[in-house]
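Letters spell out the chain; the tokens describe the backbone. To illustrate:

===
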Amino acid sequence: MYALADRFNASIIGVSALGFVAVSGTILGNPAHPVLYPDLLWGVYNIDDVVIPRVHNIAKKYIRQNLRYLGDLETGQNMLSLNVNPVLYPLRPTVPAMVEMGQMHIQPMKLLPQDLQEKLDGATDDKKLRNTIREALSELP
């Protein structure tokens, strides 16, 4: 993506489905303290020495020969939206360029159909309730 942003002179807006990754925070000027916020992925690859040079050579081959170094383009990222659930991730300070957008997919609760609601309300014990739920689920395609 960095190579395409350089090729078309476009802004870089990242999306992280994994939430806060230490590499992303460092890129945007918001490094994570390794004791307070350990990141298991940080030690797997040395991003700067292994991954970026390989990807840079591939991008030069397929996108543009006189491409700026991807390690330099990486630091030009403008914004990063994070999929962070506040229940599962600890709170941490972030810079304004890191926007936490978790749980945007959650819709307001819809009411049950009237007949199903009446059956569930009429179930007096656990066995009846389980049978009612099993019956309602068996009607699904």
Q: What stands out?
A: Strands lie at 13-16, 79-82, 98-100. The first strand starts at residue 13 and ends at 16. The CA atoms of residues 135 and 141 lie 13 Å apart. Residues 107-141 form one domain.
